[in-house]
Amino acid sequence: MPAVSARLRCPPTVATALFAGLVAVLMAMTPSAAQSPRVLEAPPKVALCAGCHGRTGNSVESRYPILAGQTTEYLARQLEDFRDGRRRHEQMSAIAALLEPEEIAALADWFGDQPRWPTGFIADPVLLASGSERARELGCGACHRSDFRGNGTIPALAGQHAEYLIAQLLAFRSGARHNDGGVMGAIVPSLGEADMRDIAHYLATLAPKP
Question: For the residues of 92-146, what is the DSSP string, one character each?
């Protein structure tokens, strides 16, 4: 019997390899820090935003932009622009003036990490097709990416409320909004209101960032 039990014991090198393999499997099953949400708890100043945008940034009213899943760089930049007067809106300018730099960063991280909720928007097929063509002709994807999910300080447009998108295009055309370095101001004069409507309907139907 002693001889048999000796044969059943793993040699030290084998036991070490098995233990290392087990550790590797367990680590693979555990989400890494990079995969985990960066923001687990809403920052206190979310209360200032929730009335219009919702606590998670999934606004219900289409005149208010969806913030969930937006790029954190864009969100932070817009709050800074509202605070410093480069972009003007009665409510947003007043709210941004109350925020410290670290609070702006915390809000941008929070909303940027939130998953998008379906909006239920259904575009007219004719408008959708026209909008897709106009967006392609204008080269909108060159800045906003081909999937329109944004890139750094360039905002994600996919799945955004059509009403809000139209309002922003009109603001760029009129000069009421000009905090983009002049790019949009150079593009929108060529757009009629029908073009804006069609492009907004197209963008509103695209899948946002998961």
Answer: HHHHHTT--HHHHHHHHHHHHHSPPPP------HHHHHHHHHHHHHHTTHHHH-T
Please state the rounded mean pLDDT for residues 71-86: 98
Asked if residues 155 and 198 have their Cβ atoms less than 8 Å apart, the reply is: no
The residue type found at 137 is E
Q: How confident is the model at residue 38 (pLDDT cuts 50, 70, 90)?
A: low
CA distance 6 to 3: 5
How far apart are the C-alpha atoms of 179 and 165, rounded to whole Å? 16
**160 within 8 A of 204, measured Cβ to Cβ:** yes
Hey, what CATH topology would domain 44-113 get? Cytochrome Bc1 Complex; Chain D, domain 2 (1.10.760)
- Domain spanning 125-205: CATH superfamily: Cytochrome c-like domain (1.10.760.10)
Is residue 109 left, alpha or beta, with left meaning phi > 0 and alpha meaning psi from -120 to 50? alpha
Q: How far, in whole angstroms, is CA 79 from its chain's centroid?
A: 15
The reported pLDDT for the residue numbered 94 is 98
User: Taking each helix axis from N to C terminus, what angle separates 125-138 and 193-205, rounded to the nearest 10 degrees?
Assistant: 100
* Backbone phi, psi, residue 154, to 5°: -90, 120
- Residues 73 and 205: their CA atoms lie apart, in Å, by 24
User: Which pair of tokens denotes residue 136?
Assistant: 């392609």
Using alpha carbons, select from 54, 40, 185, 35 the residue that is nearest to residue 119: 54
Cα–Cα distance between 207 and 202 in angstroms, integer? Answer: 11
